[in-house]
Design brief:
Among the domains are: 190 residues, TIM Barrel; 60 residues. The chain is built from 16 helices and 13 strands. The strands form three sheets. The chain has a seven-stranded mixed sheet with strand order 1-2-3-4-5-7-6. A hairpin with a 3-residue loop joins strand 12 and strand 13. The longest helix has 24 residues. It is globular. The mean pLDDT is 91.
Length: 360
């Protein structure tokens, strides 16, 4: 149940943190609002976005939401706030799967979700639907039906993530949905490719769009990013930073004019180059010139094994200008990014462990 008083204090702290980073010289031009349900208080979110646009030269605002928030009071508020891209977490259009993962009761049946998706079409420059594949009880027929329903709606963009439980949630996943394996993952991803392409073209390894559009993963377009809010992550000057997952501690730190960052992990040069290689090619293209400008010729020596192996596998092509992921290579980046995000999820669980009592 939403604690309105705590939510109000949290939004006030978000305002303070945004001022904090502005006063410390940070500038950014794209905003991505995600994690949890940021549209639960649309008026507060609109005020927050207004503050950001007053302080920074913002070109694009993207917001995540859930199917039960696709109604006029939320959508109208987001449009007025300048949101250009809306992403809705659907995950599945199979009612049995929705029940298994606990989304049927709070977010509605597949029929209700489809009606809301249809009503939201064409209200934003980009309307993205987040889906998940490789649920334990998901069949090929179920996945095929989901794909056909989304294609019939002609939504702008479809992001199909592989199921990525953390070590902590893997046990809960098994209890709720059955034992998860990766045995069918590649075949299901191939089905997604075959169904969506060429009408939909990949913008990342798991994001497909009917036309050029803003993609889900801001980490592809931006070498550095600043996370704001409790539980957020940043990547700046070759290091990862994590803000406290305790909302009460977050409010306290920001209220005292301090940074809420409580986790720090610097990357060595080799790690930075390999991270850049992973992320840029997740977005299907990596500039040779960009790598040389950032790291010099040493990046070629550091990445010689990766470049050779993926080229031999037919997953990667290389020219003077850039490296590009082939259609055959898409699944390799799905696999690697799945492992990367599962690692991030495990870290989140460790960070969140100390603050669980706040939410129980």
């Amino acid at each position: 149940m939403l604690d309105h008083e705590l939510a109000k204090r949290y939004f006030q702290a978000l305002h303070r943190e945004i001022h904090f980073w502005h006063e410390n010289g940070f500038r950014f031009n794209d905003v991505y609002v995600g994690g949890g349900t940021p549209t639960v208080l649309p008026k507060e979110l609109a005020k927050l976005l207004e503050l950001i646009q007053n302080l920074f030269q913002v070109s694009t605002i993207s917001v995540e939401t859930n199917p039960n928030h696709l109604h006029e009071s939320v959508l109208g508020s987001l449009q007025e706030a300048g949101v250009r891209r809306l992403s809705v977490g659907v995950q599945s259009l199979d009612d049995e799967i929705l029940k298994e993962i606990g989304r049927y009761a709070p977010y509605g049946s597949s029929e209700q979700i489809l009606e809301r998706l249809q009503a939201t079409q064409n209200r934003f420059d980009t309307f993205n639907v987040d889906m998940i594949f490789n649920f334990p009880h998901q069949t090929s027929d179920s996945l095929k039906r989901d794909l056909e329903l989304l294609k019939n709606l002609q939504v702008d963009q479809i992001s199909y993530y592989p199921l990525m439980p953390s070590l902590t949630t893997a046990g809960n996943t098994s209890e709720q949905m059955g034992v998860m394996t990766f045995e069918r993952e590649r075949a299901m991803y191939q089905m997604i490719q075959d169904s969506l392409m060429p009408e939909y073209q990949p913008g990342t390894a798991w994001c497909f769009a009917r036309r050029p559009a803003a993609i889900d993963e801001y980490i592809v377009d931006h070498d550095e990013y600043l996370g704001i809010g409790s539980g957020s992550f940043s990547y700046v000057n070759g290091a990862f930073y994590a803000s406290t997952f305790s909302i009460n501690r977050y409010i306290d730190l920001v209220g005292r004019g301090l940074s809420p960052i409580t986790g720090y992990r610097p990357l060595g040069l080799k790690e930075q180059i390999k991270y850049h290689f992973l992320i840029k090619l997740f977005g299907l293209r990596m500039s040779n010139h960009g790598m040389q400008k950032k790291y010099g010729e040493k990046y070629r020596r550091i990445l010689w094994k990766e470049r050779l192996v993926f080229k031999l596998l037919g997953a990667l092509t290389e020219t003077e200008q850039d490296y590009q992921v082939t259609k055959k290579g898409l699944y390799f980046w799905v696999l690697m990014m799945r492992e990367f995000f599962m690692g991030v999820n495990n870290f989140r669980e460790q960070m969140r462990a100390g603050s669980r009592s706040e939410y129980t």
